[in-house]
Amino acid sequence: MPESASPDLLPRLGAFARLLHDAGLEAGPRRLTDATRALAFIDLKQQTDFRNALRSVFVSRKEDLPTFEAAFDIFWAPLDPRASAGVIPGRSLALPLSPERAKVWANALGLNTSQMNRKGEDQEFPASSSGYSAEELLRNKDFEQMTWAETVQVRRLVEQAPWRVAERRTRRLRPARSGRIDLRRSARHAIRSSGELMNLFRRKPRVRRRPLVLICDVSGSMERYSRLLMIFAHAIARREDLEAFVFSTRLTRITRLLRQRDLDRALESVSKGVHDFSGGTRIGDALGTFNRQWGRRVLGHGAVVIIISDGWDRGDPVHLSAELMHLRRSAHRLIWLNPLLGTEGYQPLTRGMAAALPYCDDFLTAHNVQALEDLGRLLASLDSRTSR
Amino acid sequence: MTASLSIDDVERRLRERRYIGDRSLATSIFLALQLKKPLFIEGEAGVGKTEAAKVMADVLGARLIRLQCYEGIDLAHAVYEWNYPRQLLHIRLLGEGTDKTDRRTAEREIFSSEFLLRRPLLDAIDNDDATPPVLLIDEIDRSDEEFEAFLLELLSEFQVSIPEIGTIKAKQVPFVVITSNRTREVHDALKRRCLYHWIDYPDLDKEVEIVRARAPEAADGLAREVAALVQGLRGMDLYKVPGVAETLDWARSLAALGATRIDANLVNATMGAALKYQEDLEKVREQVPALVEKAQRA
Fold first, then answer.
1. What does pTM read for this prediction?
2. CA-based nearest distance A57→chain B, Å
3. B238, containing H or E segment
4. ipTM of this predicted complex?
């Protein structure tokens, strides 16, 4: 019954699925089967219905909608000989697309060159063998002054650090020795003993780690720190409920990009996905975008928000304070990490930093491994009873 | 009866029930019915996700079973629960002097469907309806991962096992609609089982149509101006952008005040129907005259 779609359509549908897969959508065999089944119910001459049907099968996230539309335009463009030959287009220069869809498409396929600084990465470094004191030295060395070899070792240190985040009580209950009476379990046992309530069972809320939100400045002035901070983000992302964003002139969510197990691949996709590495800084705008587009989605369960920035802001400080005030109200705790704080004699005198300080619960440094470990300890010590 | 519905039919019937959707929503619903797959609807708050499911039940002539999700929702609230007070009472009434076989019978008795409290999911699976019911799992983003994992299992098997009774398998699979406000990302595995539909804010003409259909008490001129006003607000940099539900509230409020057109004073007085943050209200208040003028020209 489901295989009734016209026979020459199937190979093309398969090629379309591969194209979507290349662009980062999930288009596995299961979806392909669904698409085939769906098309059997659709009048294929109706292009809109055809498009709608494929969309409802292959897309499952709002973010993927533009990519899908662009892919559809490319692949099913009526007069495109490449498409009708079943060849996967997309890597050619002349795309039958509006400029903005073409841009979405280029991004999805990662056609732009990496801007992230990764020179000399072919060299291999042996695992740290020089012992404790060398490692200790490294812990205290400013990221800014590190050689490439040292960053590779730092990477190992950061990856091994046991990141733990504070806990909060959830509304889900679990059996426990003390706490509220669990009427259900108590009654259940009572029934076994002729309706006599012999034991009272209790339950109490389950404890969960708080979600962590990282908002990281990757503008020009932060360039020296960006790579290591990304390594840091990746190390946490593998273990924790982490949402990560980077900004310089605009905000980009990199949560999904960081989820890849392999650090180098994760970093590569971050640098592909973020287009304004080392641009100027507009912290207020970036936080504004965060508050409006992401705040309600990622700050749900008593999240701890960490902003990493040196506070060099080209925007309006009043704007920055307003956004920070809003952010602080929606987060459980707001932590600002400033790598410059580790510099001797540093005073938070940049306009941006001065505007931000009153709204931060903690103001810490982030210029070396030691500082990141201190942060780890702070995070572990925040518990549900902490109030500000 | 579902087999005879075409995309056109779905679209027309939604419209007859004063639900102004677009063709892509009708297509998604149609395919979900044909492929017997759950439909996952996402969109900002107040764009009519829940309403779509309700209207769908009406279109199909089916019963609507709704499960509202919240943090910590568990099987006892979503699937079934034994009526413990009644069971206890029953067993006490039997008295102490019963022998072993009598107690066996009694135990079988109290774990029968008579003592079972059926929650929405069990209700949807164990149904004898003439038309398969519509199961609405509302705001799944509010529940937690444990519940999501359970739903995943339920949606693939459509069966529930109750240790004391056995496995109950759906005689007919309900039409499942899952909605999410995207306050968090729902797991891919669950989405993979579903057809996906994103409901966007409507454009001006469609929003006017929605106001006319859903808030007929608002005069035609008023409907258009309120819709245009809200469209203007959506273009602004606000913390909480008003949805269609807010447009309707606003139109109804203004109609209740006897307004047939908008002006700056009326807008200032009733803005709270659409804007729910103090910062947003302040920001908009400065621009009311300009917004009103623009809306009147639209």
1. 0.74
2. 5
3. none
4. 0.82
